[in-house]
């Protein structure tokens, strides 16, 4: 099973590129983030015509997540991250697909920091910790896929000094990410490519794509049932190279099911 995560940076504005990627790579599951569309504006008919069942959790202008399943309907198990009933941001969606539980997340950016946005990021990560702990021991493969907005180490960024003040690589953000891994989750891309330079995001500014000045912030975490099933992982860089592309490249894994 190929499971991909893709921050589309506007699902309607980049719909032709999304459909092209789905046709070219045929992921069995695709987790989308940053839909930037309310529920009623999600392009459900186009997605279904491409051969995918889909659930989505939209929001006007910002945020929004969706889970696509090729040739079947994802069975929704959760909408929204638990722990804060007052949180109205559309950042978490979860579904069962062919025996695999998939959580699709769009973790808050947190900039500028310090400030309320960074506080919200860290609070959201604490809620993610609590929910992830309830999933990790399930007797089935669990994959938490999405845009984590965390640069785990200096090896995951082109020039660490340029991001030193950014919320994505603050010590608190990194510590929260590694405390999540310490529950027993496996960072799938790093597990298979421990020493390679791998990026999933290239800014639109300063000719970042052409210079390969990127970041690795899109991650797929595997519970102990899923980790031994991991067979491959990578990034669809060609998608990022296309005219009008998202600033993220689709990141994917393949697991035995």
TrEMBL record:
Site feature location: Transition state stabilizer: 149
Residues reported to bind Mg(2+): 7, 34, 147, 149, 247-248
Claim: Methyltransferase is one of the keywords in the record: no
Record-linked InterPro entries: AP_endonuc_1, Endo/exonu/phosph_ase_sf, Endo/exonuclease/phosphatase, ExoIII-like
One example GO MF annotation: double-stranded DNA 3'-5' DNA exonuclease activity
A Pfam family matched in the record: Exo_endo_phos
Origin superkingdom: Bacteria
Residue positions of the active site: 106, 147 (proton donor/acceptor), 248 (proton acceptor)
Sites annotated Important for catalytic activity: 218
Cofactor(s) the record lists: Mg(2+); Mn(2+)
Comment on bound cofactor: Probably binds two magnesium or manganese ions per subunit.
Keywords for the protein's UniProt record, in alphabetical order: Hydrolase, Magnesium, Manganese, Metal-binding
Cleavable signal peptide: none
Endonuclease/exonuclease/phosphatase domain location: 4-248
Transmembrane found in the keyword field: no
Residues annotated as site: Interaction with DNA substrate: 248
GO biological process: DNA repair
Record PROSITE patterns: AP_NUCLEASE_F1_4 (PS51435)
Stored PANTHER family: EXODEOXYRIBONUCLEASE III (PTHR43250:SF1)
Family: Belongs to the DNA repair enzymes AP/ExoA family.
Name of the protein: Exodeoxyribonuclease III
Source organism: Allosphingosinicella deserti
Taxonomic placement: Bacteria, Pseudomonadati, Pseudomonadota, Alphaproteobacteria, Sphingomonadales
Gene from which the chain derives: xth
């Amino acid at each position: 099973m190929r499971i991909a995560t893709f921050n589309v940076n506007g699902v309607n504005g980049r719909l032709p590129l999304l459909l092209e990627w789905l046709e070219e790579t045929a992921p069995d599951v695709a987790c989308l983030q940053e839909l930037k569309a309310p529920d009623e504006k999600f392009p459900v008919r186009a997605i279904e015509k491409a051969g995918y069942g889909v659930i989505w959790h939209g929001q006007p202008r910002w945020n929004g997540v969706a889970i696509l399943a090729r040739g079947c309907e994802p069975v929704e198990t959760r909408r929204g991250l638990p722990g804060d009933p007052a949180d109205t941001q559309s950042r978490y969606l979860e579904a069962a697909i062919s025996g695999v539980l998939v959580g699709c997340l769009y973790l808050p950016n947190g900039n500028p920091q310090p400030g309320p946005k960074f506080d919200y990021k860290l609070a959201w990560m604490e809620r993610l910790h609590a929910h992830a702990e309830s999933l990790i021991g399930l007797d089935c493969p669990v994959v938490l896929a999405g845009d984590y907005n965390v640069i785990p180490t200096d090896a995951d960024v082109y020039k660490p000094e340029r991001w030193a003040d950014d919320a994505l690589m603050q010590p608190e953000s990194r510590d929260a990410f590694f405390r999540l891994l310490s529950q027993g989750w496996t960072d799938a891309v790093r597990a298979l490519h421990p020493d390679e330079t791998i990026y999933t995001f290239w800014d639109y500014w300063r000719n970042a794509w052409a210079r390969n000045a990127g970041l690795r912030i899109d991650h797929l975490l595997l519970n102990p049932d899923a980790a031994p099933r991991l067979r491959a992982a990578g990034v669809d860089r060609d998608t990022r190279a296309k005219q009008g592309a998202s600033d993220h490249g689709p990141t994917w894994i393949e697991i035995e099911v």
